[in-house]
Specification:
Elements lengths: L17 H9 L18
């Protein structure tokens, strides 16, 4: 993360398993819903 010190936001897309969510939340990531936000993806 040091090489990206000017970046203030990282977006991550992953599955919703408890194990995966716990892992990334342990690294400081928060669910978008915690900030009253949502994410969308278009698969064409």
């Amino acid at each position: 993360m040091e090489e990206c010190s000017d970046v203030y936001q990282i977006e991550l897309v992953t599955d919703q398993s408890d194990k995966t969510l716990s892992f990334y939340q342990g690294l400081g990531f928060r669910k978008l819903s915690d900030s009253n936000c949502t994410g969308l993806i278009y698969v064409g």
